[in-house]
Amino acid sequence: MSSNCTSSAPISASKTKTKKKHFIGQKVKLFRASEPILSVLMWGVNHTVNELSNVPVPVMLMPDDFKAYSKIKVDNHLFNKENLPSRFKFKEYCPMVFRNLRERFCIDDQDYQNSLTRSAPLNSDSQGRFGNRFLSSYDHRFVIKTVSSEDIAEMHNILKKYHQFIVECHGNTLLPQFLGMYRLTVDGVETYMVVTRNVFSHRLTVHRKYDLKVGCHYKLHALFSKEAKELPTFKDNDFLNEGQKLQIGDDNKKYFLEKLKRDVEFLATLKIMDYSLLVGIHDVDRAEQEEMDVEGTGEEDEYENDGMGGGVLTGSFGTPPDSPGNPLNCGGFFGPGEFDPSVDVYAIKSHDSAVKKEVYFMAIIDILTHYDAKKKAAHAAKTVKHGAGAEISTVNPEQYSKRFYEFMSNILS
Amino acid sequence: MASASSIASAIASKTKTKKKHFVAQKVKLFRASDPLLSVLMWGVNHSINELSHVQIPIMLMPDDFKAYSKIKVDNHLFNKENMPSHFKFKEYCPLVFRNLRERFGIDDLDFLNSLTRSAPLNSEAQGRSGARFHTSCDKRYVIKTISSEDVAEMHNILKKYHQFIVECHGNTLLPQFLGMYRLTVDGDETYMIVTRNVFSHRLSVYKKYDLKGSTVAREASDKEKPPPPEDVPPRPKSGNVQQRLQTLRIATRFYCAMKHVRDAKELPTYKDNDFINDGQKIYIDEENKKMFLEKLRKDVEFLAQLKLMDYSLLVGIHDVERAEQEEVESEDNEAEEEGESDGGGIGTPPDSPSNTLDSTKPLSPGEFDPSIDVYAIKCKESAPRKEVYFMAVIDILQHYDAKKKAAHAAKTVKHGAGAEISTVNPEQYSKRFYDFITTILS
Questions:
Q1: Judging by beta carbons within 10 Å of its beta carbon (0-12, 13-18, 19+), is residue A34 exposed, middle or buried?
Q2: Whole-angstrom Cα distance, residue A313 to residue B231?
Q3: Separation of alpha carbons B297 and B286, rounded Å
Q4: Is B18 among the residues known to form the active site?
Q5: Is the ipTM of this complex over 0.85?
Q6: Chain centroid offset of residue B26 CA
Q7: Where are the alpha helices (DSSP H) in A66-197?
Q8: How many angstroms separate the CA atoms of A391 and A393, rounded?
Q9: Phi, psi for A4 (deg, rounded to 5)
């Protein structure tokens, strides 16, 4: 499948469908990682994608698919101990649904599998709102977030409507692209993970990052601001203070706001709130400068491993002449500030007359907080503090979505 | 089959590239008539895939002979069409059997394809104890359902068996053990062992013999009878052919307690008696005979050392003319017996992917690829009929001590404690066996 997804037409459920011929250099995947949980994640994604390759693609999803799961328990004895724990469990939620979502988001299952299994996912500096752990696939295309079991429950609640929304907007949305949901059990400890498409680029570095929310909780956010090591996440307060504007031009702005409107309305109908707009800014000139510095020392920051067993350098140095047609690396040569919009789907270039030459990455994140759950918790807290009958003055999802939308439209020009 | 790009480094590097396999990604549904077969297909598929992520060690370690991999699947509302929702699959000593496959010249991916492209087929063959048989869809491998005692015995002999295979470079008439599994479906455990098919995957066998060379005092009929006490009659001292034939004529097989009724189906298994009475002969030339008997001698010596006995020589005969006739008939009926386009009959479709299973050139009648049909021996030039013989040793898992114990227990019940056991011992069995086979080859 080429990186352009032209239509989402269903594929007939023929029994011996021949999939596209994949020329795979059979590199031994060892699932080697610094931690057993990462090895299990790699093993699990490898396994589940392989399993799915033996299940015919249905014409359409059925209600049962939204309740389904696949579970596997491994118990090895004196075998394969080098990289994997001897005992572990791996559960995938709603495999057919997420396969369908991956298809609608134009992600080929083999590529998805390769991204997550060729090399171990990397720890990400960014921390989630409540200290959730983030990982990124080694090629930076996907983000793996550790979530709670409540998040899993919430995902199940919204999954049908979310899927329907994705069908209707043809995958064209700023909402998180949910690609897989898993539960890993290692040493008796259960960890839940959700895989989404990376908002930022897999290639272009992000120099400044903002997590923008509005609402009465923004003050709380300032209190909770966590400084990550290299890349601090600024909040809306910082954004306003700096007088930042994202100069993307009228067309881009219009297009962006259309999507945003649809998305926040959808979230409001689901009574979801407290989501953020994640904004990343790539400074083209600065990146060029950085690259020249690095070239001087003969190293490259970004490299892709395309299965030839060694690093393949994209961007500056081009691809080796005989590298197999890895769809991940097609059209290898990109100039400064350039990107492949089918891979970096959230990227927007600054318009030509902008002050600075930049590339922006913007999308909505953290959409799993449900109003009722919040209210219940807040109410309980208030009752403890002020006694029963105290009023809750919380913003509701409708209000939240309106405020959110207005704030975002103001920061774009 | 070899792709030149295989990097033959034995050093355990992290990113070792295996030979590039161009595989058209056909969806494998593991569809079968029996959930057990689906689980078998799934399990073999899984096990070979798992092994592809484990580095091939330079040599096997003692732990490898005690190892196993176990997997338990529990699906809910997913993949229900062809697989049961709950099942378990256990593979014994995965690294050992991978090594054995390699030594027997079997590529893991080919092995995988044979067992998973299409469901294994029920085989009419019945084992000694009524064991169930299947063959892979391409007839290269036989899957036998065995008991947990057999699995234990396999574990006991595995190290020495492996060593023997190393020493003879895979050149043996013993069963080629290629994989051993335990499947659990609906709470029932089934043990299975995969071996290379003694017979050809292409050439049909029209007559089959199971020969042990044992002699007992009484004639046994084909019907089941309680096993008579077995005494070794004094062997005729002179080499008088007539006398020997006489002895053999009155000799009967030693039937196991659960000996099956003569198979009324397509290919009955004949025994020693029938072989003699039919006047059956194996016409192979001196060189083949010499090579064969050398292998056999080494093999039975090995078995005697391990105190194994009650094995048989399985003999299959392919009649070339008869097969040609049958093929003409079946072509007329436009029903092809062979499912795989392996170059035998009609040829391969022009754009079929280069399946390494397919030989590159079509084979003429009576011809075979000795790297696949490893047990095949052509008849000698002066044979009355053009035939191909398939001969190998089977059923090697019966240990003398286990037998003795059982027999002793039975005798004690019948005759009281202290009764003597007069059973042939493995050494004697091997000699008798070898001598009998030598005789039939002359």
A1: exposed
A2: 79
A3: 16
A4: no
A5: no
A6: 29
A7: 95-104, 109-117, 149-168
A8: 6
A9: -95, 125
Q: Which of B22, B25, B64 to mutate to test binding with chain A, by most A CBs within 10 Å of its CB?
A: B25
Q: Which residue in B90, B139, B144, B259 is the catalytic one? A: B144
The answer to whether A322 faces chain B, any CB pair under 8 Å, is no
State the distance between the two ends of chain B, measured CA to CA, in whole angstroms. 38
Helical (H) or strand (E) element with A145? strand A142-147
- Written as six digits, the tokens of A149 are 């079991």
**Token pair 């393949």 in the structure block, residue:** A312
User: Which backbone phi and psi does B416 adopt, to 5 degrees?
Assistant: 90, 160
Any residues with CB less than 8 A from the CB of B406 and at least 6 apart, and which?
A: none
**Is the Cβ–Cβ distance between A141 and A115 less than 8 Å?**
yes
Helix, strand or coil, per DSSP, at residue B18: coil
Nearest CA in chain A to B17: A27
**How does pLDDT run across B317-354, given as a tens digit for each residue?**
999 998 888 888 888 876 554 444 343 334 334 444 44
What's the rounded Cα separation, in Å, for the pair A66 and A80? 34
Count of beta carbons in the 10 Å neighbourhood of residue A395: 18
Q: From B109, B5, B101, B9, select the one nearest B55 (Cα to Cα).
A: B9
Q: Taking a C-beta distance cutoff of 8 angstroms, is the pair B38, B31 a contact?
A: yes
**Alpha-helix residue ranges (DSSP H) falling in B182-252:** 241-250
Contact assignment for A18 to B18 by CB distance below 8 Å: no
Six-digit token string for B88:
């378990």
Ramachandran sector of residue B16 (left: φ over 0; alpha: ψ -120 to 50; beta: rest): beta
What residues have CB less than 8 Å from B85, skipping those under 6 apart? B74, B75, B76
Q: Measured between alpha carbons, how far is A59 from B31 in angstroms, rounded to an integer? A: 20
Residue A27 bears catalytic tag: no
Per-residue pLDDT reduced to its tens digit, B81-128:
989 999 999 999 999 999 999 999 999 999 999 999 999 999 876 555
φ, ψ for residue A160, nearest 5 deg: -65, -45
Q: What is the pTM of this model?
A: 0.80
Residue B126 to residue B145: CA distance in whole angstroms: 10
